[in-house]
């Protein structure tokens, strides 16, 4: 229905013949946006100790993954920097408490901000319990802070344990 309404709207705005000429351009732009996001996508593995997985499941707890993109500011980017970095996007997701390969899609990456950085794009990831069953984080997990190209070529593995397993 949405596709039908969009087609009718385009027809009303610019005429039927012009609408047909726009369809390939719209499809090309949609594909380009998807390809741009794919350029910034990466993945990594999360593993949990047996005790952490069992405790989180027993508590009906999930895990939260937060991933950020950033870069060092160039001269033009200094006014856009926060904490010494130019923020380029982030993603957050909630997952069941189990071993998984996590895919960060890159859809929130803002390529217009690349003009404000020098050097490589950097990614950082943090994993913690989602605090559904407790106000406290129940697990301690590895983190990473690496160049995007490194993470894309060598996906890291993050391991999580219960805080009392340390």
UniProtKB/TrEMBL annotation:
<keyword id="KW-0732">Signal</keyword>
<protein>
    <submittedName>
        <fullName>Uncharacterized protein</fullName>
    </submittedName>
</protein>
<feature type="signal peptide">
    <location>
        <begin position="1"/>
        <end position="36"/>
    </location>
</feature>
């Amino acid at each position: 229905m949405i596709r039908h309404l969009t087609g009718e709207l385009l027809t009303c705005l610019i005429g039927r013949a012009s609408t047909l000429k726009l369809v390939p351009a719209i499809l090309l732009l949609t594909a380009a946006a998807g390809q741009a996001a794919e350029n910034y996508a990466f993945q990594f593995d999360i593993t949990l100790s047996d005790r952490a997985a069992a405790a989180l499941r027993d508590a009906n707890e999930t895990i939260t993954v937060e991933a950020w993109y950033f870069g060092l500011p160039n001269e033009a980017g200094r006014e856009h920097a926060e904490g010494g970095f130019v923020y380029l996007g982030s993603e957050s997701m909630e997952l069941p408490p189990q071993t998984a390969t996590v895919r960060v899609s890159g859809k929130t990456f803002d390529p217009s901000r690349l003009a404000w950085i020098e050097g490589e794009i950097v990614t950082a990831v943090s994993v913690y319990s989602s605090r559904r069953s407790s106000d406290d984080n129940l697990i301690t997990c590895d983190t990473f802070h690496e160049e995007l190209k490194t993470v894309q070529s060598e996906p890291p593995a993050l391991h999580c344990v219960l805080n009392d397993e340390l």
